[in-house]
Amino acid sequence: MKNNDGEQRSSRFSKKKVLLTIALSVVVVAAGGGIYLLKASDDPSFCNACHIMEPYYESWKDSNLLANKHAEEDVECHDCHEPSLSTQVEEGVKYVTGNYQDPLEKREFSKDFCLECHDDFESIKAATDFEEGNPHDSHNDDQECNLCHNMHQESQVTCAECHYFSWIDELDDSWAKESE
Question: Is the pLDDT of residue 179 over 80?
């Protein structure tokens, strides 16, 4: 009888050992996969894996829009879009379950956010002083950059809603020439 008890304990110990090994293996694989996905998500082409992201990726990769101008300066998606791990998981679940908005809601960044990279606003104002009107030195006080500048769509000359300046005609084709 002692033999059977010893065999049962040994058998239970072996089962626990096997289950513990399996559980540990699952944790290691999940953690490794998570780390891989986190690292892979730093590459802008990863964003293109979801079809709803295609227009945003294409505007970054190859367009006349502001997103591409940033790409030419080696600015990548996560330099502006800094999602936390929980946000990435939440967005992944929404995509897989089909519970997402298409097109995505436009994100608006504050002027302070833009000035983290474009840190010399006085030189921006000086560079856009066109004598007849400076869009960066507006009579409307402290405007947000995204009032005019759009990354993944045509930018809008908001002052053209009320004013006409000849420099508007000189803007490249990343700008809508007429107010919408």
Answer: no
Rounded CA-CA distance 155/176 in Å is: 6
For the stretch 71-92, what's the b/e string if a residue is b when 16 or more beta carbons lie within 10 angstroms of its beta carbon? beeebebeebeeeeeeeeeeee
Report the predicted TM-score, pTM, of the whole model to 2 decimal places: 0.70
Beta bridge partners of 176: 156
Question: Looking at the chain, how many residues does it have?
Answer: 180
Per CATH, the number for 111-176 is 1.10.1130.10
Backbone phi and psi for residue 55, each to the nearest 5 degrees, phi listed first: -65, -30
Binned at pLDDT 50, 70 and 90, residue 1 comes out as very low
DSSP β-bridge partners for residue 156: 176
Closest CA to 78 of 36, 38, 28: 38
Question: Does pLDDT of 163 surpass 70?
Answer: yes
Q: What is the 3-state secondary structure (H, E, C) of the chain?
A: CHHHHHHHHHHHHHHHHHHHHHHHHHHHHHHHHHHHHHHHCCCHHHHCCCHHHHHHHHHHHCCCCHHHHHHCCCCCHHHHCCCCHHHHHHHHHHHHHCCCCCCCCCCCCCHHHHCCCCCCHHHHHHHCCCCCCCCCCCCCCCCCHHHCCCCCCCEECHHHHCCCCHHHHHCCCCEECCCC
